[in-house]
Amino acid sequence: MDPDEPPSCSSLTTQQLQQSWRALKRRERPVRLLFEIPSSRIIERNTLNKHVVYEVVVMRSGSFDSKRVSVERRYSDFSHLHQKLLEEFHEELEEVILPRKLLTGNFNPDIISERRLALQDYLAKLYAVRCVRHSLLFATFFTEQEQRRAHSLLRAGQFEPAMELLQTVLQIQEKLLPWQRPTLIVPSLSALAVCYRDLEEPEQAFSVAQRALPAVRRYGLKDYRAAVLQLLLDVGYQLGRPVATFQEELTVLRDAERGEVSSRSLKEIVVQEFI
After folding, report:
1. For 50, phi and psi rounded to 5 degrees?
2. Among 110, 137, 142, 185, which residue's beta carbon has the most beta carbons within 10 A?
3. What is its main location (predicted)?
4. Inter-residue contact 182 to 215 (CB < 8 Å)
5. Is residue 180 within 8 Å of residue 139, measured between CB atoms?
6. What's the average model confidence in pLDDT over 161-169?
7. Where are the domains of the chain?
8. What pTM was computed for the model?
Protein backbone atom coordinates (compact mmCIF):
# COMPACT_ATOMS: atom_id res chain seq x y z
CA MET A 1 0.00 0.00 0.00
CA ASP A 2 1.29 3.46 -0.92
CA PRO A 3 2.21 5.22 2.37
CA ASP A 4 0.99 8.55 0.93
CA GLU A 5 -2.41 7.14 0.01
CA PRO A 6 -5.21 7.69 2.55
CA PRO A 7 -6.44 4.47 4.15
CA SER A 8 -9.59 2.91 2.78
CA CYS A 9 -12.66 2.50 4.97
CA SER A 10 -11.96 -1.22 5.26
CA SER A 11 -8.53 -0.58 6.76
CA LEU A 12 -9.77 1.89 9.38
CA THR A 13 -10.43 0.81 12.93
CA THR A 14 -13.79 1.48 14.54
CA GLN A 15 -12.29 4.33 16.53
CA GLN A 16 -10.79 5.89 13.41
CA LEU A 17 -14.10 5.59 11.59
CA GLN A 18 -15.88 7.31 14.46
CA GLN A 19 -13.32 10.12 14.51
CA SER A 20 -13.60 10.51 10.73
CA TRP A 21 -17.39 10.63 10.96
CA ARG A 22 -17.33 13.26 13.72
CA ALA A 23 -14.91 15.40 11.69
CA LEU A 24 -17.18 15.13 8.65
CA LYS A 25 -20.22 16.12 10.69
CA ARG A 26 -18.38 19.17 12.03
CA ARG A 27 -17.54 20.25 8.49
CA GLU A 28 -21.13 19.80 7.34
CA ARG A 29 -22.72 21.52 10.32
CA PRO A 30 -24.89 24.37 9.00
CA VAL A 31 -23.86 27.89 9.87
CA ARG A 32 -26.29 29.76 12.08
CA LEU A 33 -26.31 33.13 13.75
CA LEU A 34 -26.25 33.21 17.52
CA PHE A 35 -26.98 36.20 19.72
CA GLU A 36 -25.85 36.82 23.25
CA ILE A 37 -26.58 39.76 25.51
CA PRO A 38 -24.01 39.18 28.25
CA SER A 39 -24.11 42.58 29.91
CA SER A 40 -25.83 45.90 30.26
CA ARG A 41 -25.03 49.29 31.69
CA ILE A 42 -26.89 52.38 32.78
CA ILE A 43 -26.03 55.63 31.04
CA GLU A 44 -26.93 58.72 33.04
CA ARG A 45 -26.21 62.12 31.55
CA ASN A 46 -28.43 63.91 34.05
CA THR A 47 -31.38 63.11 36.30
CA LEU A 48 -33.79 63.44 33.37
CA ASN A 49 -31.68 61.56 30.83
CA LYS A 50 -31.02 58.05 32.02
CA HIS A 51 -31.33 54.78 30.14
CA VAL A 52 -30.05 51.20 29.92
CA VAL A 53 -27.98 49.91 27.02
CA TYR A 54 -27.47 46.22 26.31
CA GLU A 55 -24.36 44.68 24.80
CA VAL A 56 -25.44 42.55 21.82
CA VAL A 57 -22.87 40.00 20.66
CA VAL A 58 -23.28 38.47 17.19
CA MET A 59 -21.65 35.09 16.57
CA ARG A 60 -21.73 32.41 13.90
CA SER A 61 -22.02 28.74 14.75
CA GLY A 62 -20.90 25.78 12.66
CA SER A 63 -17.24 26.71 12.97
CA PHE A 64 -15.10 28.41 15.57
CA ASP A 65 -15.88 32.13 15.52
CA SER A 66 -12.84 33.89 16.91
CA LYS A 67 -14.11 37.40 16.21
CA ARG A 68 -16.13 38.55 19.19
CA VAL A 69 -17.93 41.64 17.99
CA SER A 70 -20.69 43.52 19.73
CA VAL A 71 -22.78 46.66 19.64
CA GLU A 72 -24.91 48.40 22.24
CA ARG A 73 -28.64 48.88 21.86
CA ARG A 74 -31.41 50.40 23.97
CA TYR A 75 -34.80 48.85 24.52
CA SER A 76 -36.23 51.56 22.25
CA ASP A 77 -34.02 50.27 19.42
CA PHE A 78 -35.51 46.80 19.80
CA SER A 79 -38.99 48.32 19.87
CA HIS A 80 -38.33 50.32 16.70
CA LEU A 81 -37.04 47.19 14.95
CA HIS A 82 -40.12 45.24 16.00
CA GLN A 83 -42.51 47.87 14.67
CA LYS A 84 -40.69 48.04 11.33
CA LEU A 85 -40.67 44.26 10.99
CA LEU A 86 -44.38 44.07 11.81
CA GLU A 87 -45.09 46.44 8.93
CA GLU A 88 -43.55 43.93 6.52
CA PHE A 89 -44.04 40.55 8.19
CA HIS A 90 -47.09 40.89 10.41
CA GLU A 91 -48.42 37.37 9.85
CA GLU A 92 -45.02 35.71 10.15
CA LEU A 93 -44.38 37.43 13.49
CA GLU A 94 -47.65 36.60 15.19
CA GLU A 95 -45.89 34.36 17.70
CA VAL A 96 -42.78 36.53 18.19
CA ILE A 97 -43.43 38.85 21.09
CA LEU A 98 -41.20 41.76 22.04
CA PRO A 99 -40.63 41.90 25.82
CA ARG A 100 -43.10 44.44 27.14
CA LYS A 101 -42.20 48.00 27.96
CA LEU A 102 -41.96 48.79 31.66
CA LEU A 103 -43.24 51.99 33.20
CA THR A 104 -41.44 51.52 36.52
CA GLY A 105 -38.45 49.61 37.82
CA ASN A 106 -36.44 49.98 34.64
CA PHE A 107 -33.20 50.42 36.57
CA ASN A 108 -33.71 47.61 39.06
CA PRO A 109 -30.79 45.15 38.61
CA ASP A 110 -33.06 42.10 38.70
CA ILE A 111 -35.41 43.57 36.12
CA ILE A 112 -32.50 44.59 33.88
CA SER A 113 -31.10 41.05 34.08
CA GLU A 114 -34.50 39.55 33.28
CA ARG A 115 -34.99 41.87 30.32
CA ARG A 116 -31.47 41.17 29.06
CA LEU A 117 -32.27 37.46 28.79
CA ALA A 118 -35.69 38.16 27.30
CA LEU A 119 -34.19 40.35 24.57
CA GLN A 120 -31.60 37.70 23.82
CA ASP A 121 -34.39 35.16 23.39
CA TYR A 122 -36.31 37.65 21.25
CA LEU A 123 -33.41 37.98 18.79
CA ALA A 124 -33.14 34.20 18.53
CA LYS A 125 -36.85 33.95 17.74
CA LEU A 126 -36.59 36.67 15.11
CA TYR A 127 -33.69 34.88 13.47
CA ALA A 128 -35.72 31.66 13.37
CA VAL A 129 -38.20 33.36 11.00
CA ARG A 130 -36.74 32.92 7.53
CA CYS A 131 -38.09 36.12 5.98
CA VAL A 132 -36.78 38.14 8.92
CA ARG A 133 -33.22 36.82 8.85
CA HIS A 134 -33.10 37.60 5.12
CA SER A 135 -34.51 41.07 5.69
CA LEU A 136 -32.31 44.13 5.38
CA LEU A 137 -34.16 45.60 8.36
CA PHE A 138 -32.81 42.82 10.55
CA ALA A 139 -29.25 43.32 9.29
CA THR A 140 -29.23 47.09 9.69
CA PHE A 141 -30.43 46.81 13.30
CA PHE A 142 -26.92 45.62 14.19
CA THR A 143 -24.97 48.15 12.13
CA GLU A 144 -26.80 51.33 11.15
CA GLN A 145 -26.05 53.36 14.29
CA GLU A 146 -22.34 52.60 14.02
CA GLN A 147 -22.35 53.33 10.30
CA ARG A 148 -23.93 56.73 10.87
CA ARG A 149 -21.39 57.61 13.56
CA ALA A 150 -18.53 56.37 11.38
CA HIS A 151 -19.61 58.43 8.39
CA SER A 152 -20.08 61.49 10.57
CA LEU A 153 -16.51 61.06 11.82
CA LEU A 154 -15.28 60.51 8.27
CA ARG A 155 -16.94 63.73 7.10
CA ALA A 156 -15.17 65.51 9.96
CA GLY A 157 -11.82 64.11 8.84
CA GLN A 158 -11.49 61.85 11.90
CA PHE A 159 -10.47 58.80 9.93
CA GLU A 160 -8.98 56.60 12.63
CA PRO A 161 -12.04 56.53 14.95
CA ALA A 162 -14.22 56.18 11.85
CA MET A 163 -12.21 53.12 10.83
CA GLU A 164 -12.66 51.49 14.23
CA LEU A 165 -16.43 51.72 13.89
CA LEU A 166 -16.36 50.62 10.26
CA GLN A 167 -14.33 47.53 11.17
CA THR A 168 -16.96 46.59 13.74
CA VAL A 169 -19.71 47.13 11.17
CA LEU A 170 -17.88 45.08 8.55
CA GLN A 171 -17.26 42.17 10.93
CA ILE A 172 -20.96 42.00 11.79
CA GLN A 173 -21.98 42.31 8.16
CA GLU A 174 -19.66 39.47 7.20
CA LYS A 175 -21.38 37.27 9.79
CA LEU A 176 -24.74 38.23 8.28
CA LEU A 177 -23.73 37.68 4.65
CA PRO A 178 -25.08 34.11 4.26
CA TRP A 179 -28.57 35.62 4.59
CA GLN A 180 -28.01 38.96 2.86
CA ARG A 181 -26.99 40.22 -0.57
CA PRO A 182 -23.23 40.78 -0.97
CA THR A 183 -23.95 44.47 -1.60
CA LEU A 184 -24.46 44.80 2.16
CA ILE A 185 -20.72 45.28 2.68
CA VAL A 186 -20.05 47.64 -0.25
CA PRO A 187 -20.62 50.93 1.65
CA SER A 188 -18.44 49.77 4.55
CA LEU A 189 -15.61 48.60 2.30
CA SER A 190 -15.82 51.81 0.28
CA ALA A 191 -15.67 53.98 3.40
CA LEU A 192 -12.70 51.99 4.70
CA ALA A 193 -10.91 52.40 1.37
CA VAL A 194 -11.42 56.17 1.57
CA CYS A 195 -10.11 56.25 5.16
CA TYR A 196 -7.03 54.21 4.30
CA ARG A 197 -6.28 56.40 1.32
CA ASP A 198 -6.60 59.63 3.29
CA LEU A 199 -4.39 58.15 6.01
CA GLU A 200 -1.81 57.43 3.29
CA GLU A 201 -2.05 53.67 3.61
CA PRO A 202 -2.35 52.79 -0.10
CA GLU A 203 -1.81 49.04 0.27
CA GLN A 204 -4.81 48.70 2.56
CA ALA A 205 -6.88 51.08 0.43
CA PHE A 206 -6.14 49.00 -2.67
CA SER A 207 -6.90 45.71 -0.92
CA VAL A 208 -10.21 46.88 0.54
CA ALA A 209 -11.37 48.43 -2.74
CA GLN A 210 -10.61 45.16 -4.52
CA ARG A 211 -12.86 43.33 -2.04
CA ALA A 212 -15.75 45.65 -2.92
CA LEU A 213 -15.42 45.25 -6.68
CA PRO A 214 -17.01 41.78 -7.24
CA ALA A 215 -20.32 42.71 -5.58
CA VAL A 216 -20.32 46.11 -7.28
CA ARG A 217 -19.88 44.41 -10.66
CA ARG A 218 -22.37 41.62 -10.08
CA TYR A 219 -25.21 43.80 -8.86
CA GLY A 220 -24.73 46.67 -11.27
CA LEU A 221 -23.85 49.44 -8.82
CA LYS A 222 -22.69 51.73 -11.61
CA ASP A 223 -21.69 54.79 -9.59
CA TYR A 224 -19.83 52.70 -7.03
CA ARG A 225 -18.22 50.64 -9.78
CA ALA A 226 -16.78 53.64 -11.60
CA ALA A 227 -15.59 55.23 -8.35
CA VAL A 228 -14.01 52.02 -7.02
CA LEU A 229 -12.27 51.43 -10.35
CA GLN A 230 -10.95 54.99 -10.35
CA LEU A 231 -9.58 54.58 -6.83
CA LEU A 232 -7.94 51.29 -7.82
CA LEU A 233 -6.39 53.03 -10.81
CA ASP A 234 -5.06 55.97 -8.80
CA VAL A 235 -3.75 53.89 -5.91
CA GLY A 236 -2.53 51.15 -8.24
CA TYR A 237 -0.38 53.63 -10.15
CA GLN A 238 1.00 54.87 -6.84
CA LEU A 239 1.91 51.32 -5.81
CA GLY A 240 3.26 50.34 -9.20
CA ARG A 241 0.58 47.68 -9.67
CA PRO A 242 -0.68 46.52 -13.08
CA VAL A 243 -3.86 48.52 -13.65
CA ALA A 244 -4.51 48.12 -17.38
CA THR A 245 -7.52 45.87 -16.79
CA PHE A 246 -9.06 48.40 -14.41
CA GLN A 247 -8.49 51.18 -16.95
CA GLU A 248 -10.08 49.14 -19.72
CA GLU A 249 -13.07 48.21 -17.57
CA LEU A 250 -13.62 51.83 -16.55
CA THR A 251 -13.40 53.04 -20.15
CA VAL A 252 -15.87 50.40 -21.35
CA LEU A 253 -18.25 51.23 -18.49
CA ARG A 254 -18.25 54.95 -19.19
CA ASP A 255 -18.59 54.45 -22.95
CA ALA A 256 -21.48 52.01 -22.53
CA GLU A 257 -23.27 54.10 -19.91
CA ARG A 258 -22.48 57.53 -21.30
CA GLY A 259 -24.22 60.14 -19.21
CA GLU A 260 -25.58 57.57 -16.75
CA VAL A 261 -22.43 56.92 -14.73
CA SER A 262 -21.49 59.53 -12.17
CA SER A 263 -18.03 61.04 -12.31
CA ARG A 264 -17.96 61.46 -8.52
CA SER A 265 -15.00 60.08 -6.64
CA LEU A 266 -15.46 57.30 -4.11
CA LYS A 267 -14.95 59.81 -1.31
CA GLU A 268 -17.67 62.07 -2.73
CA ILE A 269 -20.05 59.11 -2.78
CA VAL A 270 -19.12 57.92 0.71
CA VAL A 271 -19.57 61.28 2.43
CA GLN A 272 -23.14 61.43 1.14
CA GLU A 273 -24.06 58.11 2.74
CA PHE A 274 -25.79 57.81 6.13
CA ILE A 275 -26.48 61.51 6.56
Report:
1. -140, 130
2. 142
3. membrane
4. yes
5. yes
6. 98
7. 33-141, 146-270
8. 0.85
Using an 8 Å Cβ cutoff, are 57 and 69 in contact?
yes
Q: Contact 120/70 with Cβ under 8 angstroms?
A: no
Residue type at 127 in one-letter notation: Y
DSSP 180-194: S-GGGGHHHHHHHHH
At residue 24, φ and ψ (nearest 5 deg) are -65, -40
Is 146-270 a domain of CATH 2.30.180.10? no
| Backbone phi and psi for residue 72, each to the nearest 5 degrees, phi listed first | -110, 135
50: which strand partners? 44
25/68: higher pLDDT: 68
List strands edge to edge, sheet with 33-46. 33-46, 49-60, 69-74
Q: Which CATH superfamily groups domain 33-141?
A: Phox-like domain (3.30.1520.10)
Distance CA(23)–CA(7), nearest Å, equals: 16
DSSP state of 178: G
Pairing of the two strands 49-60 and 33-46: antiparallel
The angle formed by the CA atoms of residues 134, 139 and 143, to the nearest 5 degrees, is: 170
Query: Phi, psi (5° rounding) for residue 71?
Result: -135, 165
Kindly tell me the sign of the dihedral angle through the C-alpha atoms of 143, 146, 150, 151.
positive
Amino acid identity for residue 102 in this structure = L
d(CA 74, CA 51): 8
Residues 6+ apart with CB under 8 A from 57: 35, 36, 37, 38, 68, 69, 70
Which residues is 73 bridged to in the sheet?
A: 54
Distance CA 104, CA 135 (A): 33
At residue 82, the pLDDT reads: 98
